Amino acid sequence: MNKFMILGGSGFVGRPVCEALARLQWAVTLPTRHAKNAMALQHLPLVQVVQANVHDEAALTRLVAGHDAVVNLIAILHGDEEAFERTHVELPAKLARACQAAGVKRLVHVSALGADATDPQAPPSRYLRSKSRGEVVLQHGLLDLTVLRPSVIFGADDQFTNMFAQLQRVFPFVPLAGAHTRFQPVWVQDVAQAIVRCLQDRRTIGQTYELCGPETLSLQAIVQLCGRLAGVREGAGVPVIPMPWWVGRLQAGLMELLPGQPLMSRDNVASLQVDNVASGHHPGLSALGITASSLSGIAPGYLGHDSAQGVPTHLVDLRSR
Question: Which of helix, strand or coil describes residue 171?
């Protein structure tokens, strides 16, 4: 029986990956620091939730042993330089050493579209630069490695399209830096399927895949689509006002002062300075036999309602004043 370990398996992408592997009757080990975060997956057959700190290299080496392959999905969107380094660079380096020590060769690593392993200092944001360095340390790890670089991932539980839909229920307009930045949003289920295909097919070893949807949309068009689908202002959405970069950085800096995870950080704004679209230098979903689903085709199924569920607490407070 195939046996896989999924780092980050309780997250947005990890859940459909675990569900897909369970349907194939493959055994899955899901390490997590907080077992309650994986409660929804514990009912799946052959999924074993293990409470562990994967940043502890000795513990990670013990966990990896006995598995046929490892999938790394762990990532953060917000943080300082130290946090990005710890999560996107040091953890992959520990994982590479753990795999070597345990005799596990196969690794599928989910990076990000815009990462550049050939020039790790080139990307404009700390997020993308750390993702680039993480790819580099893995490529030096003598592993049977496949790297996946998805564009922004959407789905019913995402923090991207849902955020823009909810913001339009709170505010009369949306000020937006990077309004003209282009994206190719990719469905979470297509990303999960890509991961499974890579685990099934050894011909994907040594490859980097750019996972992108079939539509190229500006950020402004995405925001407007989310507003229409959510039925805000009788389906028209609220006005989107493009802002210069300096205003966007100022706005993000103020958001960073609010409690909880910021909706937008200055580093996120830096990422918006480059288009998030396929470079054409690497194969995509079609090379894995996957027909990509579009945002406009999938999002009506989960945005087509009028609910305040998911609005951050401080935004609800603002709306009620």
Answer: coil
107-161 per-position pLDDT tens digit: 999 999 999 998 888 999 999 999 999 999 998 878 999 999 999 999 998 989 9
Report the greatest alpha carbon distance in the chain: 59
Report the alpha-carbon distance of residue 226 to residue 164 in Å, rounded: 6
- 3-state class (DSSP) for residue 92: helix
Distance CA 306, CA 169 (A): 9
pLDDT band at 311 (very low <50, low <70, confident <90, very high): very low
Amino acid at 296: S
State the Cα–Cα distance between residues 27 and 44, nearest whole angstrom.
10
What is the rounded CA–CA span in Å between residue 166 and residue 210? 29
| The pLDDT value given to residue 316 | 33
* φ, ψ at 180 (rounded to 5°): -100, 0
> For residue 180, which amino acid is it?
H
The answer to whether residue 315 scores a pLDDT higher than 60 is no
Tokens of 216: 């190229």
pLDDT tens for 15-26 read 999 999 999 999
Q: pLDDT at position 230, please?
A: 85
Cα–Cα distances in angstroms (integers) from residue 313 to residues 12, 91, 305, 317, in the given order? 21, 32, 20, 6
Give the Cα separation of 150 and 20 in Å (integer). 18
Pairing of strands 27-32, 47-51: parallel
Q: Is the dihedral of CA 257, 75, 55, 41 positive or negative?
A: positive
In three-state form (DSSP H/G/I as H, E/B as E, the rest C), the secondary structure along 123-161 is: CCCHHHHHHHHHHHHHHCCCCEEEEEEECCEECCCCCCH
